[in-house]
Amino acid sequence: MKSVKVIVKGIVQGVGFRPFIYRLAKKLNLKGYVKNLGNVVEIHLEGENIDKFLSLLKKEKPPLAKIEYIEVEKTTPKNFKDFEIIKSSDYSDLGIIPADISICEECLKEIFDKNNKRRYLYPFNSCVDCGPRFTIIYDLPYDRENTSMRDFPLCSECLEEYNNPEDRRFHGETISCKNCGPSLYLTDGNEILAEDYNSILLAKKLLNEGYILAIKGIGGFHLACRVDNDETLIKLRERLNRKTQPFAVMTNFENIKLFAHYDEDEKKALLSKERPIVILDKNEDYHNYFSKYVSNLNTIGVFLPYSGLHYLLLKDEFAFVMTSANLPGLPMVIDESDIEKLKGIADYFLIHNRKIVNRCDDSVVKKIADRIVFLRRSRGYAPEPIDVNIENDKIILCVGAELNSTACLVKKNRFYLTQYIGNTSKYETFLFLKDAIKRLLKLTKTNRIDYVVCDLHPQYNSTKLAYELSKKFNSKLIKVQHHFAHAYSLLGDNNYFDDILIFSLDGMGYGLDGNIWGGEVLLYKDKKMERVAHLEEQIQVGGDLAVKYPIRMLFSILYKAIGEEAKEFLKRYLSEREINILEFQLKKNINCFITTSTGRVLDAISSLLNICQEKTYDGEPAIRLESVAKKYDNLEIKPKIKNNILLTTPLIEECYNMYVNGEDISKIAYFSHMYIADGLFMLAKKYLKDVDTIGLTGGVSYNKIITERIYNLAKSEEYNFIYHRRVPNGDGGISFGQGVYLCLSQLQDIQ
Description:
Blueprint: E1 3-11, H1 17-27, E2 31-36, E3 41-46, H2 50-59, E4 66-74, E5 83-85, H3 105-111, H4 156-162, E6 184-187, E7 192-195, H5 196-208, E8 213-216, E9 221-226, H6 230-240, E10 249-251, H7 253-256, E11 260-261, H8 264-271, E12 277-282, E13 299-303, H9 308-314, E14 319-324, E15 348-352, E16 364-368, E17 371-376, E18 386-387, E19 395-398, E20 408-411, E21 414-417, H10 427-443, E22 451-455, H11 461-472, E23 476-480, H12 482-494, E24 500-510, E25 516-525, E26 528-535, E27 538-541, H13 545-548, H14 551-562, H15 564-569, H16 576-588, E28 592-595, H17 598-608, H18 620-628, E29 641-642, E30 645-646, H19 649-660, H20 665-685, E31 693-697, H21 704-716, E32 720-722, H22 734-744
Parallel strand pairs: 2-5, 8-15, 10-13, 12-16, 19-22, 22-23, 24-31, 26-30, 31-32
Antiparallel strand pairs: 1-3, 1-4, 2-3, 6-7, 6-15, 8-9, 9-14, 10-14, 11-12, 12-13, 16-17, 18-21, 19-20, 20-21, 24-25, 25-26, 27-28, 29-30
Helix pairs in contact: 5-9, 12-22, 14-17, 14-19, 17-18, 17-19, 17-20, 19-20, 20-21
């Protein structure tokens, strides 16, 4: 009699894999068992149909499963009498922590089936194919007792489903019903006003009356309100201190065509099991449905319901604003004990009693240059690892940068990115980063760290954390320059490690020369990264104040271009006293810094055109500049290059001349983007004699005009072009890039 032990690695936990194995083995009359081993699945088989089993294992696996590797070892028969699922045990090998999954069609049908007594209008319905995963996990293996569902013992009917091999809830760790699962209630913060489905009905009534609600979801609380009520939206913005940042909206799929454009790739993203927020272009009817206070851009962030609670809220409704419940820069609220933080922001609170173990914000994606890219990789994706074709025998912990932060754990060729963390300059967010790292190490059973990697910037909280962690684990501390990390992130994302020229463009990063970088041309050749060109150095007057108030950047560059005339022009935006102070600072070099930032140049043009004079969220002036730009054909673009530098002073001067001569701001905005894109491409061609591939990374690469122009120029001249796919272009991918850098470097040479 044949007998084997099979180890299966991949996405095999939290996806109904063990029940599938059970049914397949029973069907083929095989004996033995299946169990979780912490991060993988172990199967013992005895019988004559083992080869057929192994063939069907790959062909008929559950829809959410992904098999990466199967290891088969012959064993001595133990004469098993039957096949069974047995209790999980520990295992130290690499595996995958399951991410959260939107509710499946079968569970959704049950919620709206009046004949289903236990699950009709029940907001927490799930099965092996859907439901929360990462957000409820305390530890692996993925068994109910290791999740927050352990607080809800199964009733007899659910237990019967759980133990029935023919039921889709067989060994479904998140299953429950009205009789045994989580419950829901609505409160004003003092007393309970309604419970269970009645709380949803009352919540909808209050939303439609213009109130703001805090709603506890899968990964945290959302703030919800109507999309067409100016007064409510103004109130929400004031209470959140979120003056202009666009709100995401949740709606049913059939409604989207009424207010936005989408193509097949965007449709696929919207309907995917991960349910990210998808950035879509508004259509001409948008303002018939939405208040101007939802989004002041030409785009709108849209996502579909992904839990039973969402579907019940949106039943017979058009759309609701659904934005993360947090003050700017702080982590989203996840616990009902913390609703004190939301009092004064939300009027009412719709709360369930299932604990959120791991905070996880919504993911955000956007289509650029023929592909969907991540602005934020979080719920639905994190912390599933990204595999890179690199040989590595070290355990590496990377703590990222400061804004839009993530951390990354590298074990072998597997890169575990945390969920989105945010702005770690804020103390509460910094604590969230520490906690996310602690939980990731626990879930991956990591007790040893060989290297801790951080940004080069000495003042980042993440850098300080890196020092702390390197001491704790007695590991080496490595610092990686910010834009190099972006570039290595691009290489790892694409598994591309040949010679390449990379544009690494963003707002700011601490440079190797101590200046502020952000418009860098990097040559990766012979396995080494080198800065070979960059944007013109400009003066950032007032340091971070020039980031918040882009007119400071405008003054600096315009004064450099046209002297006293700049002062006269800026009187339309600044008082004479303010202009004199800026001039004094500039001439005396008081709190002035050198920058090559692409973002700061775009900010200056946004200020010049009076589009945005104050940054209230990351990247706002440049984002709003892009939003007003309209395509113009036959523009004369003549970027000026000196040595290895793309000059940006002539760009600002030309935009100024166009503006004072009455050109439409949409044309000037478009011109400025094309100047930068064409100038970078011209700059690159000097190095493209020996390199046939161009790459683009960094926060500015979210700009569709610049990115798609470079992409099209590269294609037209038959250069290869690589761009991000699996990792955020911006600072959310820095930790990943830090890990790729270390894996590609000669570790023994690093001091």
